[in-house]
Design goal:
- It is a single chain.
- About 90% of the residues lie in helices and about 0% in strands.
- It has helices at about 5-55, 55-75.
- The protein has two helices and no strands.
- The chain is mainly alpha-helical.
- It has one domain (about 5-75).
- It is rod-shaped, with a radius of gyration of 24 Å.
Length: about 80
């Protein structure tokens, strides 16, 4: 196999790997959006659970803060 043939084979291999990498990156980007939304929802639910288990003044303030942040997240979407 000549040097030029080796070069061509390597370039084809690189292009295939690059294409696969771009496809995987696109899939990852598609997953990130819903994952972030679910993470925010879980955080909000955990704060509510904490407040319901022990309703102290600081927990009520945390719930109020979580509710205000939730409305901010909804505006972003």
């Amino acid at each position: 196999m000549s040097l030029e043939e080796k070069y061509e084979a390597l370039m084809k291999s690189y292009q295939a790997a690059s294409s696969t990498n771009q496809d995987l990156q696109r899939r990852l980007d598609e997953i990130k959006g819903p994952t972030m939304y679910l993470r925010k929802q879980l955080d909000k639910s955990m704060k509510r659970k904490s407040v319901l288990e022990s309703p102290t003044t600081s927990n009520l303030e945390a719930l109020s803060e979580a509710e205000s942040q939730h409305s901010i997240y909804e505006e972003d979407e």
